[in-house]
Fold these 3 entries.
Entry 1:
Amino acid sequence: RETRPNFLLYTTSECHFSNGTQRVGLLDRYFYKEEEYVRFDSDVGQYRAVTKLGRPSAKHWNSQKEYMEQTRAEVDRYCRHNY
């Protein structure tokens, strides 16, 4: 039986602080096969494709109003809460 190759899909969440907690930013980065393909930057407020592979995901997520409201709130829930 032939072994199929493994493909790793993972996400990182980075909190960026400047001037104490007065300026807080969240960067969610999505990777497939060790290549970042889409990201959410709280300073931008929406998902942006990093590669062609990320375009459908960014378009879909950005079109989901409730999901985007929750995502934008993550900077306070995740970053400020854990500072």
Entry 2:
Amino acid sequence: MRKVLVFGTFDILHPGHEYFLKQAKKHGDELIVVIARDLTVKQVKKEFPVNNEQERLGAVKKLDYVNNAILGSLSKDKYRIIEEVRPDVICLGYDQEAFVSGLEAKLQEKGLKPEIIRLDAYKPEKYKSSYYKSNHYEYYKKAKLIKRKE
């Protein structure tokens, strides 16, 4: 069984996320999605996600092509989850930069050798999360999802 691992915030699921996850699934039999913790998102993106980690986890778990979704680690070693899952493949988003620069070195250090695949974007001018949120502001305002405060 070939395990594929992906990482992301997955805040306000949109067709770009779905495309990414479906493309990742094509690289194996089992798709495992690691959902970024709220504190990690705050550190990386300088703001909390609109939906909290439990809401984002629940939304991704409902997707029928996702075999498992788990929360990322709160430990200082953000790569530990890779050691626990031991994937055959790690798929990265076209614009994914956080924790990617040292990924290959960390994997080698831990004796892990998954294939790393950078996936293509799906209409990023329309479905990049920041663009999607800003262009659907009224919808999220009505849904009371705009800017969580922690």
Entry 3:
Amino acid sequence: MYINIYKWGNADIGNVRETFFANQLSYRHQLEFPERGDFLIDGRYVFEIGGKDKTGGQLKGVGEGYVAADGIEYGTSTKIPLWLFGFLY
């Protein structure tokens, strides 16, 4: 997914993941930066972006919190594969 970025030098994978997520959702949704999590979408959904081992620990106390995880093929109730957000654009 990120092969072209690595060709140009050292890339911070966390930054790449968050940039991908923001790019895919900002086309049709409002993004904000909440106190907890990485993104607040449309004032309602809080997302934490990370790798396959990312947990929702930072989202405790958040009403509708989800993890968008890279490196997984399918999700669970609150963990969604990052690649699926590519279909939103």
